[in-house]
Amino acid sequence: MSDEHSTPENVTPVSPAVTNGLSYIGGIGLVTIFITLGIAVVAPPENPNVVGMFVLGGLLLLISAIIGWFFVVQPHKHFDDINQPLEEEHH
After folding, report:
1. pTM of the model
2. Pseudo-torsion of CA 4, 8, 11, 15, nearest 10°?
3. Does residue 73 sit in helix, strand or coil?
4. For residue 17, what are the CA distances in angstroms to 6, 9, 13, 24, 72?
């Protein structure tokens, strides 16, 4: 019986610390955007450029985490083919 969770020989396993770190970076970016916009709605700042810079910083963090995840995990190389059925022993 083969293991349905086995990986091909040429696939290098990704460290969970790397994916967790990238998700934390993306989460910090989202939280930065949300908190900045929330504060700007409640108490508009004298200089709106400050809000724009914080939103831009959060967006850059989020985009860098997404791009980093894409290059580390490489989901375009490892995907399930829904047209190919699993073996009969699969429950």
Report:
1. 0.73
2. 30
3. helix
4. 21, 22, 12, 10, 12
- Bin 44: left if φ > 0, else alpha if -120 < ψ < 50, else beta: beta
pLDDT tens-place values along the chain, 91 residues long: 445 555 555 667 888 899 999 999 999 999 999 999 999 999 999 999 999 999 999 999 999 999 999 998 887 776 777 777 777 665 5
Distance between CA atoms of residues 68 and 64, nearest Å: 6
Q: Which two tokens stand for residue 9?
A: 């020989």
CA-closest candidate to residue 69, choices 32, 31, 16: 16
